[in-house]
């Protein structure tokens, strides 16, 4: 395929990709999930501190009460993610329509608890169990947040509101204008809750978990589908499109639910339920699995071109920042590096999955690292030095795979530079 053909294909792909990336629903979900990341990280670090495998340390935090404090934080962060995500997504989605994100979040909170089952003790005390407030309730939280917010936005923008005189302060007028849309959403989910209570499922939570969340997590847990998705992501990168964002705009809710279940199990000291998830992909595909290429340019290159690129891209690559590498080399539309650039992610994921599945490497704990967390540290954060060691092994492997492609390009660049110097003489 020629470069012209590649650009033509890129022009055909780009409009579809742009529609996905500009979707208000997609951006509302993505922005909400990302906006809730500080709370997610709070729970993740609490779980790490609670489960450090150092006997004297664990005895100390138990004796002084730190362990109990950490468990409380985990209970209302990691085990409360469905509630947190519901509020955050509603706010993010409302802002996409330039409406009040705070009210949308509060409205969603009310609607979410309306459809959440409540237990009553023998003494008549009403309790809401945590069963659906964490990872198992995330998909219901997404649905409730989008539907409740959409009802609110639709009625508000259609003018189905209580209109106050102009003399009324804007804050008061805004509150009254949200009453009818808010009542409509609450009534809708009250009806939904009553309908599902009359079925064998009992709640919408159980229905969504059975028919939506479990099947989708099955897809997210399938290494074949993950390899295909991340190979496609790299193909989009090759055409100059941010493939990672495109893929995550579709699979982020699935991976988020899987990682939430992973973190909850890790915090409780239980067997981890998933091999894959966002944390798994992030841990084993840092910088598009091209760190080895950056190191080759830094330490092995003969040409000034690639030596300079190595100095610019190696350190960012080690911290998971691939843009200097992708656009500086460039790897975009560069068929010299097409094979390792597009397919190395898939190779790393297959190796990591296989070693994890047979028990040589432990499962990642589900703590998606903050952007910029360096390799090795991001592996240690997943709960084991073996994960960090595998990261190093995969970098070494990528160095070997990238080497022949790099060597050929470097020699060509070096010869061009030498010819230019000779001509100047």
Automatic annotation (TrEMBL):
Main location: membrane
Pfam families cross-referenced by the UniProt entry: PTS_EIIC
Residue ranges annotated for the PTS EIIC type-1 domain, each copy included: 35-418
Any one GO BP annotation for this protein: phosphoenolpyruvate-dependent sugar phosphotransferase system
Top-level taxonomic group: Bacteria
Keyword Transmembrane listed: yes
Ranges annotated as spanning the membrane: 32-52, 72-94, 101-120, 132-155, 176-199, 219-238, 245-267, 279-300, 337-357, 387-406
Gene Ontology CC: one annotated term: plasma membrane
Function summary: The phosphoenolpyruvate-dependent sugar phosphotransferase system (PTS), a major carbohydrate active -transport system, catalyzes the phosphorylation of incoming sugar substrates concomitant with their translocation across the cell membrane.
Protein known as: Permease IIC component
Organism: Candidatus Galacturonatibacter soehngenii
């Amino acid at each position: 395929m020629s470069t012209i053909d590649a650009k033509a294909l890129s022009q055909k792909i780009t409009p579809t990709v742009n529609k996905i990336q500009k979707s208000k629903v997609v951006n509302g979900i993505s922005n909400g999930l990302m906006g809730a990341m500080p709370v997610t990280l709070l729970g993740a670090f609490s779980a790490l501190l609670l489960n450090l495998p150092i006997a004297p340390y664990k005895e100390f935090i138990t004796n002084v009460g730190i362990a109990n404090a950490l468990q409380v934080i985990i209970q209302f962060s990691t085990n409360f993610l469905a509630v947190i995500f519901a509020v955050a997504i509603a706010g993010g989605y409302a802002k996409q329509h330039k409406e009040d994100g705070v009210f949308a979040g509060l409205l969603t909170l009310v609607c979410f608890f309306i459809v959440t089952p409540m237990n009553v003790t023998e003494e008549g005390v009403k309790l809401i169990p945590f069963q659906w407030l964490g990872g198992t309730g995330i998909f219901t939280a997404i649905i409730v947040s989008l539907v409740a917010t959409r009802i609110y936005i639709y009625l508000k923008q259609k003018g189905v509101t209580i209109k106050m005189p102009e003399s009324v302060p804007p804050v008061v007028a805004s509150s009254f204008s949200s009453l009818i849309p808010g009542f409509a959403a609450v009534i809708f989910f009250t009806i939904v809750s009553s309908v599902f209570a009359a079925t064998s499922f009992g709640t919408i939570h159980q229905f969504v978990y059975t028919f939506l969340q479990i099947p989708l997590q099955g897809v997210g847990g399938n290494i074949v589908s993950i390899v295909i998705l991340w190979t496609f992501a790299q193909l989009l990168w090759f055409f100059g499109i941010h493939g990672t964002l495109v893929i995550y705009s579709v699979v982020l809710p699935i991976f988020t639910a899987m990682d939430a279940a992973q973190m909850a199990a890790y915090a409780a000291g239980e067997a981890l339920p998933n091999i894959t998830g966002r944390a798994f992909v992030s841990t084993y595909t840092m910088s598009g699995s091209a760190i080895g290429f950056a190191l080759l340019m830094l330490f092995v290159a003969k040409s000034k071109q690639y030596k300079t690129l190595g100095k610019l891209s190696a350190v960012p690559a080690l911290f998971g920042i691939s843009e200097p590498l992708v656009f500086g080399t460039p790897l975009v539309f560069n068929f010299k590096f097409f094979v390792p650039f597009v397919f190395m992610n898939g190779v790393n994921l297959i190796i990591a999955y296989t070693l994890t599945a047979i028990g040589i490497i432990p499962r990642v704990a589900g703590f998606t690292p903050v952007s910029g967390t360096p390799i090795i540290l991001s592996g240690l954060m997943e709960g084991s030095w073996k994960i960090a060691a595998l990261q190093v092994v995969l970098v070494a492997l990528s160095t070997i795979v990238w080497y022949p492609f790099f060597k050929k390009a470097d020699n060509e660049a070096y010869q061009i530079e030498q010819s230019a110097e000779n001509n100047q003489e």
